[in-house]
């Protein structure tokens, strides 16, 4: 999932440099959404690890 965040971030940066505002905003928005999903899954995974124990 982090790979997708990096890909959309690069697309957003390239589009911003070239002046395509809509494309840059869209790619940055998608990258943000994927990042937040990753964070939620990370927190759930950590909680499940603590609940289960070793």
Brief summary:
By secondary structure, the chain is mostly helical.
List the helices and strands and how they pair.
Blueprint: H1 2-18, H2 21-52
Helix pairs in contact: 1-2
Helix content: over 70%
Uncertain segments are none
Total number of distinct structural domains: 1
The number of E-state strands comes to: 0
**Rg from C-alpha positions?**
15 Å
- List the secondary-structure elements in sequence, H or E: HH
Structural class: mainly alpha
Q: Name the beta content range.
A: under 5%
The coarse overall form would be rod-shaped
Mean pLDDT: 81
End-to-end separation in angstroms reads: 26 Å
Tell me about the biggest sheet? none
Number of helices: 2
Protein name: Small integral membrane protein
Transmembrane segments: 7-27, 33-51
Organism: Cesiribacter andamanensis AMV16
InterPro entries: DUF1328
How does this structure look, described?
The protein is mainly α and 54 residues long. The protein has one domain. 91% of the residues lie in helices and 0% in strands. The chain contains 2 helices and no strands. The chain is rod-shaped and about 50 Å long. The chain starts with a helix and ends with a helix. The mean pLDDT is 81.
Features:
mainly alpha; 54 residues
